[in-house]
Amino acid sequence: MFQALDVAAFRWINSGLSNPVFDVLLPIFNGFRFFIPAVILLGAFLIWKGGYKAKAYLICLIIAISLTDGVVCRGLKKAIGRPRPFSTLENVNLLAGRGLSGSMPSAHAANSAAVMVVTALFYRRRWRLMAGLTATVGVARIYSGVHYPSDVLVGWGLGLLVGWGTVIGAQRIWRILINKLYPSTDQHWPDLLNLSASKVPIQKARLEPNWLRLGQGLILVLLLGRLIYLGSGIIELSEDEAYQWMWSKHPALSYFSKPPMIAYVQWVGRSLWGDREFAVRFFGPICAAGVSWLALMWLAREGKAKSGWLVLLVITATPIFAAGATLMTVDSISVFFWTGTMFAGYQAIRKGSLHWWVGTGVAIALSSLSKQTGLFQFVSFILVFSTWPEARRQLRSAGPWIALVIGLLGLVPVLVWNHQHGWITLEHLQTRAGLDARWEPTLKFFFRLTGEEFGLLNPIFFCGLVLASIRFFRKFSTSTELERFLFWMGAPVFVGYFIYSLRALVQPNWIAPAVLPLLMWMVLVLTRQSDWSRWVNWGKSGLLLGFVAMVLVHDTRLITKTTGLILPARSDPHTRVRGWKTLAGIVESELAIQSTEGKGAFVIADHYGLTSLLTFYIPEAQANVPEKRMVFYPWTEHAENQYFFWQSYQDRIGDTAIYVQQVRKNKLPAPIPQHLARQFESTEELGIRQVRFNDQVIREVQLFACRGLKPVAKW
User: Fold this and answer.
1) What is the Cα–Cα distance from 29 to 17, expressed in whole angstroms?
2) DSSP letter string over 33-67?
3) Upper half-sphere CA count for residue 395 (Cβ side, 13 Å)
4) Cys bridge to 16: 12, 397, 419, 687, which one at CB 3.0-4.6 A?
5) For the chain, what is the radius of gyration of the CA atoms?
6) What does the pLDDT look like over 174-202, one tens digit per residue?
7) Residue 91 zone, left/alpha/beta (φ > 0; ψ -120 to 50; rest)
8) For the range 589-597, what are the long-range contacts, defined as Cβ-Cβ under 8 Å and sequence gap of 24 or more?
9) Is the model's pTM score more than 0.90?
10) Which regions of 254-362 does DSSP assign to beta strands (E)?
């Protein structure tokens, strides 16, 4: 009965009220094309001109929308799984895109209701305007044919609860923490929602918060937020993450392209959480929180807690750091140990303490075990010793030399493994760095790297680094020891790779270890006490730009949801972390078909990343790693990746393989490689399969049936 009433109400609004005027007006509210620009303008206005209450309102608004859209509605849509009206009913007047998510509840209705209640609680006179907007959005969703009335009603209810809970929760937290964060602020702002209750006018109050506690709170909030984001399953694994997950299944002293630390960390994550995406990425946010904590505590020890707070805001709004805080790559671990080495080394120099030097050696050894870039830190310390007299005096003691020996011990596992495997890592790095080709000077790689870093470092902060460099060298004699130390900890990597880009292609993530020390250095140089106010507006611009970009990049579907514009798959950064489960299902289905022919069947993929992803997302393949693998990289005579050193498919004589070959961008489908075809009695092309997301083809693969694996002698 309820379903019948729901459908009847839907028909009345969707068809009964249909007219040309509504067809033009309501889709405007349905898609919210101007929502993102409006939020950006509102955020900019509140940050620049709004008072403390306006900033508190903006924070509560962001939290409420994030909870309703990213947690509550997304989780319920998956759990309930109600189809959209246009999927089950005939003759629906569809005026919006065909959403792939469930119908119950309406996220648009929930978001608008959350905005309404947060606005009403902070600014009571605005509730009528917001109520009208919320009602219009809900009706527009029904009129456009994408939701039932019950979806909208439930969305409104959830939005009201979440919005109210966010503000009330924020108010209670404010009352509990106010004395710790803002000493004596209860005289100025005792009630988050009611400035009139203050005993001293807020405009005249000079509030100086406890910057250390604020920073610690921000680190905790970001850590929890990132873990929740990873647990939501918005993104799937990337190729390198799955590849390194495979490494963790095969413990070794080192690996084809990287030292072993990433595999060990992945092993711990798997031991804690099992073989799932959350386990693979678990230590990404942990490393980011550790890096942030070290930076904050370091500057607080130097009496610069406010600068530490600013550094936290800056790195949070820097795309390359934010990416490393969610995706689990070797850079996440490398940056963590690089930061630990900096912190310990600075304390060792200042205090002349042996245990700090031992800690420095251990940290640099772990950094080298994480990524080869860790060796650059030896260069950084040489430059520090050459320009800092106090540091040079430490060379007369045993501390620095003990640290050097311990640091070099980190190379032993890598050297032993490479000695056993023909120094293959050195050969790979030589090829990757372009050292195997004749040098032909060019600027194309330099300009490409500059453009990539301009975006990944945040355009405002990239310009800030340039300005800080100019100022730093103009007033080098008046710079502090900490500023010079941080500069030498970051500049050799940053400048070195830019110089090397004159010879060969440099990947933008290679400068990752230099990001934190240079951003810390930038904040210290540009915000010296006499110049603090000069850079405030520039800093706010960078933070606003970075935070908006971070929200959109964490879920690019928000662009479509809020503007109605579909981001081309080629330009969507999430394309590389979407569609792998779907592709695995396609391959698994074809594998089942081939298995019915009476022969054993397995999978071969044309790229190490695809091989790893199919292993992870095909349940049977994941369950049998490493004892009985069923997804392989093509056998070759020379090592091309780590799969060369693991057991291949040579013992599956007579079996059938499904060969999965990716169709590259702007390239036509290609025949099966001849060296692979020679390994089987016969091959048959099974056609092209497409993986779609949001009505777009995000990748294509060719499938081949390779029947009758020959003995190795006949290859």
Assistant:
1) 16
2) TTHHHHHHHHHHHHHHT--HHHHHHHHHHHHHHII
3) 10
4) 12
5) 29
6) 776 665 655 554 445 556 666 544 444 44
7) left
8) 590/658, 590/686, 590/703, 591/618, 591/658, 594/656, 594/658, 594/705, 595/656, 597/656
9) no
10) none
